[in-house]
Amino acid sequence: MDNVSNARKVISASRVLAVDDEADIRELIDLTLTRMGLEVDCVGSVAEALALLKTRNYQLCLADMRLPDGEGLEILRHLVATGSDVPVAIITAYGSPENAVVAMKEGAFDYLAKPVGLDQLRALVQSALRLTDTAAEPEEAEEQEKPESASRMVIGVSSAMRHVAGMIAKLAKSQAPVYISGESGSGKEMAARQIHEKSPRARFPFVPVNCGAIPGALMESEFFGYRKGAFTSADQDRDGFFQAAHGGTLFLDEVADLPLEMQVKLLRAIQEKKVRKIGQTTEETVDARIICATHEDLRLCVERGAFRQDLYYRLNVIELKMPPLRERRKDIPILARAILARQCGDHPPKLSQEAWNALERYSFPGNVRELENILERAVALCTDNRIEVDDLRLTDMLIPSGMAVGRKGETLVDFLDRVERQAIQSALDKVGGNRTAASRILGISFRSIRYRLERLGMECGEDTE
Known about the structure:
Layout (H helix, E strand, L loop, with lengths): L1 H11 L2 E5 L3 H13 L3 E5 L2 H10 L4 E5 L1 E2 L2 E2 H10 L6 E5 L4 H9 L4 E4 L4 H19 L1 H7 L14 H13 L6 E4 L6 H10 L8 E5 L8 H6 L16 H4 L4 E5 L6 H13 L1 E2 L8 E2 L3 E6 L3 H6 L5 H7 L2 E4 L10 H13 L5 E2 L1 H9 L5 H15 L4 E2 L1 H4 L19 H19 L4 H8 L3 H11 L9
């Protein structure tokens, strides 16, 4: 009840600037927002908007992309240049997704497509006002934060991770869909969680979905829900992932595994911000931010026809690349200590210098997830609360010291590919070419080793699966 009353209090104290050269759209926005208890100023040009911004404070700005004397992006750029944190939503013409993408990349909070739908307008305004409310009360927001253990967060001192941390901070202030790319185990879900936890949506659910683990026959009901009696086993109403994530964030992991038929339905849900349960005749509005991830290259998936191009552009508004652990070796000690603290509490075992040296030379094909598995195994094997190099079980996968500087004329990418190729081939040789058994030795998934073999152009062994 307190949250509802606080939300009403925020709305009643808010003023919105609406900028559109079409009188009927200005009237629609004015009427809708006034009924929500907001104060609204409506103008039809960039110049009028900039003049009002000099004299009044606003909690939200809605600006048409095309205006008689310029673009709505000029208003956005003006606010960014003056250090204002007023969220700006851009109104785009129907069928112009490229304009929405440009606006989001420049820092727009969200976008509305014409013809403007009232449900989408109300949902956007409510999300924006939660954003400004959080920004206005940082102390209260800090008290509500309950960060997870450091080993479950995106941490590091390397330049690559400093860049990732900066991107996460920026993305948390936006509603733009985010595509997180990176190898298996590199921390894509952790990055998505941090974006959510630092955003105004943090008080609402974060719903992770492994798209590759859902049977095709159940996919639509899992995503959109169903009504009682919709099919034989539907003995009661059930919400789907979209409804569960309402107000929060829906994280689609391994999104490249979605079948084309489901991609069409997902695209419509994202565009319209509405879903229809199986067995229901009407649609319901959902307000969920979409973050997706995959270890595959989505561009290549589009090129070979396995992923829809229009969905790709909807999801890949902003890309966040997670670096592999081998490219951020400075972070290994920090991550290892954080992981051990989570696994063992206040008295974690210590690593010998030889064990630290071994970790620093290891290629980590399974990235951070593999580091967690290695340390968990070492904790179980060590004696006297001290981890020795033998406890790590890394002998077959260490980077030979003679390769540390690479070969003459060899680029870093070539060097790393060579090391990875040798490590995979060594594992395959030990198990007679069986990819499933080799993936277990390497500490990575079967899907990951198959992807790496294809990427490195290596001959594929046999499978047991």
